[in-house]
Amino acid sequence: MFADRARIFVRSGKGGDGHVSFRREKYVPAGGPDGGDGGRGGDVIFEVDEGLNTLIDFRNVRKYKAEDGEPGGKKNCRGKDGQDIIIKVPQGTVIKEAESGKVIVDMSGENRKVVLLQGGKGGNGNQHYATSTMQAPKYAQPGQPAKELELLLELKMIADVGLVGFPNVGKSTFLSRVTNARPKIANYHFTTLNPNLGVVDLEGTKGFVIADIPGLIEGASEGVGLGHEFLRHIERTKVIIHIVDAAGTEGRDPVADIYAINKELEAYNPDIAKRPQVIAANKIDAIYDTENSPVEAIKKEFEPMGIAVYPISAVSGQGVKELLYHVNEMLEEISEEVTVFEQEYFPELAAFQDSDEPYTVSYDEEEQEYVVEGPRIEKMLGYTNLESEKGFTFFQNFLKETGILEQLEELGIQDGDTVRMYGLSFDYYK
């Protein structure tokens, strides 16, 4: 089963309620309050598991809940903290908010373990509310509520090189020859439904990871067949090997095929179409017309564009080593950084967006500053660490999502103007 997408529901633990109780001891007629605090709710944590390469497990289990914190008890007994839930995913899994499709976190690069939703804090017991005038408080703080989200998981393979081409051009045969991968090979269309990963070991080099992207068809970029699912895996690759049936064993024109596949890549994501590409003119062992060589026709068409063409036979191995060393040289010229998708959705922000607490946006003529204030703003600033990059990005998203930036623009704010929020001043730049 092709399993590179899954939709799941996650919920953090609710904080335990604080307890109301009073000391009951012999010879102590008026014992003070001794209600314990509630325990903290468990977090929802995502962690990369190197042993996984598919999201198939999420087809069977769709709901994931952390444990609630226990309520506080008598005699200052604090409630037990709820247990975290750790959800294991393959490297390269992009976690999105299901409704908007915005990225919450990309489990790639340094993102190995991420707390996606924090559990609710436990409430204070009544012991915290005793004062000189209120020595027997009969109330305690409830625990913070749980947080929940509907998530969309998408697996985008992390491979240095992606193989593309029409079905039956020999991609699976090529992959089985050059790596330790053993894809199932048969002579029918869409034989490969799962992208196969393999490691290429080349003498004198550190090698590279190669992925056989399942066969594309025209219209794939519009979602025809399994187009979008297949194209998704190409997004992280640095180099594309375009395998074409140079012999035209199925009566196809190899030059037209190359243009057709590149058109699909361009339609899906123009950035992918610009990736360095090399053409592997496969099945040269099946070319019998030596005078009108189709390989020469391919070279004549694409080499002037700066795309190298290597005649190969995946079956016999002819020309394969030369192609691989060329690809390795291409990779050495490219930055080693893994493409990591930036965060677009902040679960913490949802609480502030849903809040109906007021705020105001105005212009202070005397100070010549724009002023944003109100309980909602004060809470957000108290929650956010503006010193950190993530905190500042959260702050910028809050201003955008709540419409504050739009209101400032309606008031006529210009680049370089000052915005004041509870003792903090910021220069505005669009």
Q: How many H/I helical runs?
A: 10
- Percent helix range: 10-25%
* Extended strand count: 18
Spatial gap, N to C terminus:
47 Å
The succession of helices and strands, N to C, reads EEEEEEEEEHEEHEHHEHEHHEEHHHEE
Gyration radius from CA atoms, angstroms: 30 Å
Which structural class do you get from the secondary structure elements?
Answer: alpha/beta
Q: How much beta, percentage-wise?
A: 15-25%
> What shape does the CA trace take?
elongated
Q: How would a textbook summarize the main sheet?
A: 6 strands, mixed
Walk across the major sheet and give the strand order.
Answer: 10-11-9-12-13-14
Mean pLDDT: 78
Low-pLDDT parts are: 181-193, 217-227
Model description:
The protein is α/β, with parallel strands linked by helices. It contains ten helices and 18 strands. It has helices at residues 171-178, 227-232, 254-268, 270-273, 294-302, 320-332, 347-354, 375-383, 389-401, 404-410, and strands at 5-11, 44-48, 63-65, 85-89, 93-97, 103-107, 113-117, 148-155, 161-164, 196-200, 208-212, 239-245, 277-282, 309-311, 360-364, 369-373, 418-421, 424-427. A six-stranded mixed sheet has the order 10-11-9-12-13-14, sandwiched between helices. The chain has a five-stranded mixed sheet with strand order 3-1-8-5-6, with no helix packed on it. A four-stranded mixed sheet has the order 15-16-17-18. The longest helix has 15 residues, at 254-268. The protein is elongated. Residues 181-193 and 217-227 have low confidence and may be disordered.
